[in-house]
Amino acid sequence: MKDSEAKTCAGMVRGRKGGGYRVEREILDEERLEELSQRLDISQTRAPLAYRLKNSLRCSVSSLKRRVVGCLPVLYWLPRYSIWDYGMPDLVSGISVGIMHLPQGMAYSLLASLPPVFGLYTSFYPALVYFFFGSSRHISIGTFTVLSIMVGSVVERLAPDANFLIVNGTNATVEVKVTERDLYRVQVAAATTVLAGLIQVILGLVQFGFVGTYLSEPLVRGYTSSAAAHAVVAQLKYIFGVSPTRFSGPLSLVYTLVDVCMLLPSTHLPTLLISSVSITVLIVAKELNNRFRKKLPVPIPVELIVIVVGTLISYYTHLNKNYEISVVGEIPSGLQPPTVPQTSVFSEVVVDAFALAIVGYAISISLGKTFALKHGYKVDSNQELVALGLSNAVGGFFQCYSVCASMSRSLVQETTGGKTQMAGVASAVIVLVTVLKLGPLFQDLPKAVLAAVVFVNLKGMFKQYSDILTLWRTSKIDLLVWLVTWVSTVLFNLDMGLGASIGFALLTVIFRTQRPRYSVLGHLPGTELYLDMETHTQVREVPGITIFRSSATIYFANAELYLEALKQKSGLDITKMITYKRRQEAKESGADSLHEEELSWKERENSTVFVMPETPHNSWVYLKGIDPETSTLGSMVSLGSLGKWTWDIHSIILDISPANFIDTVAIKTLRNIFHDFGEIDVDIYIAGCQTPVVEQLEQGGFFTDISKERLFTTVHDAVLYCLNHRGAGTSSRYETTVVRFKDYYKHETLKCLNALAALLYLIHSYQRIWHMTLC
Questions:
Q1: Closest Cα partner for 132 from 197, 68, 62?
Q2: Beta partners for residue 446, in sequence order
Q3: Which of 32-36, 318-322, 416-420, 553-557 is the least confident region?
């Protein structure tokens, strides 16, 4: 490269921002850029398969230790664990979280339609498994509201009360065989949990941890808000002491709510009184906890206190016998032996298991990454998927149901000083002691108290309804995703609602790529920048050059729309212009004229018409419905009285810098643009083409008949080349005069003129016939 071309001077100059720069270099097209940068071929950037296999075998032994540590993160941090630094904070944090596990485990088991003791099992086994395989140091694994509701919907669908009815021979009443029903429900929940865990493990092993990214924040918040609605409706029967009919399938929430409202006159007043008092006490105590949280070393275990007090009152006043208040009932002490889940129900719950796997992982990884970012460590998304899957799979063998991280418990574990996963072990010990020794003490606990605990814990989800106002101000599309997710989940239940909401969210992405912002760029004087002319008042159009940009990548779904937008923005209807040019060339060469069918009446119905006049001073525009070959001068309107709008375009630059990939349909569209506009002497150039896109153009055969000299590094390079090559004011060989009838005539006016001309013609014809008759 010559010294003058290689010269680069960068001098700082004073300006409003305190500095500036100036660069002098040659104009770079893609061919010249590859020559200077020595870009490698695609085959050179990828190592041969044999080399990769050999390198993999060579590194397999040395990486075995790292892989084992990656699968078992406990082997990395446990040898470095300092009891003096982390022991006491983890112990205090674990005890605080364990105390929260007790009421939440029993309360959320009601949401899962299972006996309360299985909520305690679910708070114990998965936490121990996560201790070995989890990479997050601050999340608390166990029962969670949303997953409990999802499990409950599966359990009630496959094991409804109607399948376990028995007629009492004494008084001829219909009763439910509660023991058999609960046993089968536990088996269904365990099988669903094992299947969900296996799905998570498989997804984690195949490095599918990114699946959680498809659940956007508006979708997750809308989903959890609708799940809170399901939870509230599910607890109404315990709060009011009524027995509504169980419904399943679409609109089951609506039917249940209507049934509960019909049963309100038969509300059990003692149960309602206990529920109201428990809710009031919990709300007031939690507000005091929040107000004085900075002064308290650990949060006051309000839920546990309410449960203990409610149990004591129920035990000494015999609420169940005297007032017929429903209580928890028998709680077996000790742990249950592992059992193999019923694989026969796998086919019936596979969809629900997949939904549980995705939702549980999305909630856990979002919390894990939040705490990891705050405390400066990394969470492996794939390892988290495996850890959560093993927690569910192993827990299912011990009659647990699906688990994930809980926001409330995780916040307590983090704020009380928890440092590592040892806090989870401490909380599991608290649950174990309760299951082994203290479980039977809670047999007289009213279910209304547990329902109150669930109801109050949904406060955070109720606050998410404020997202509607926030999203209305920030993003209407995200608001639409939130609302569609909420409505679909409420109406179609949690499993179908999740599928519908994910599908709709993906459709919004496709729609936004199909309808991007198309703009014509202008030059900002004194810079090399080119900005949208519609949104910037100080940019100037480059004479003879149209710079067209789409805000999205070009692919099969929007390639045709891209071409139509280019025609509209440039003002060049390429189809009509090519047709007219060929007609003119045929006339000039003395060949036969083209058939009239080539200009169909459908084409002439467009409101924008293109004419290539022979001289600049004799410009005419065709009226709609009038054949330019047979019409007379009286059927044309002169442009002199209307004002002529002339486009002197000799070059079009396609700025595709937003594109990150391109497919075969888009490549074909670009080739057609190059060829078609070339027929009317308008040169097409591409600017801002990224290296992956260039490689895809090469693979698609784009450069077989199109030179790489048509591709430029920046828009400014392309503009300078066009100005040097075609000039600033040079118009193409065929001048394009465009008249838009909608700016001068209304459609109805043209129809009236055509009708009037036809009427005059008929009158004139009748006059001639009448005159000939008289003669």
A1: 68
A2: 327
A3: 32-36
Quick one: tokens of 108? 């959320």
Pairing of strands 651-655, 545-550: parallel
Torsions phi, psi for 65 (to 5 deg): -65, -45
| Strand 651-655 to 608-611 pairing | unpaired
CA-to-CA distance for 445 and 315, rounded, in angstroms? 8
Q: Tell me if 244 sits within 8 A of 237, measured CB to CB.
A: yes
> How far, in Å, CA of 693 to CA of 654, rounded?
14
| Residues whose CB is less than 8 angstroms from the CB of residue 267 and which lie 6 or more positions away in sequence, other chains included | 240, 241, 242
Instruction: Look at the block and give the residue holding tokens 């465009």.
Output: 738
Q: Which residue from 500, 494, 498 is spatially nearest to 151, judged by alpha carbons? A: 494
DSSP-assigned states of every residue in 416-435: TT--STHHHHHHHHHHHHII
Q: What is the pLDDT of residues 649-669, one digit of tens each?
A: 889 999 999 998 999 999 999
Kindly state the helix (H) or strand (E) to which residue 634 belongs, with its residue range: none
For the four alpha carbons of 526, 529, 535 and 541, in that order, the dihedral sign comes to: positive
- Between strands 683-687 and 711-712, the pairing is parallel
Three-state secondary structure call for residue 545: strand
In whole angstroms, give the CA distance from residue 679 to residue 766: 48
Backbone angles phi, psi at 519, to 5 degrees: -145, 155
> What's the rounded Cα separation, in Å, for the pair 303 and 326?
19
- Residue located via tokens 């479980």: 439
Q: Which residues of 702-724 are buried (b: 16+ CB within 10 A; e: fewer)?
A: beeebebebbbbbbbbbbebbbe
349 near 396, Cβ under 8 Å? no
Here the tokens at position 568 are 């509209």
Per-residue pLDDT tens over the stretch 727-765: 665 433 333 333 333 433 444 565 566 667 767 767 766
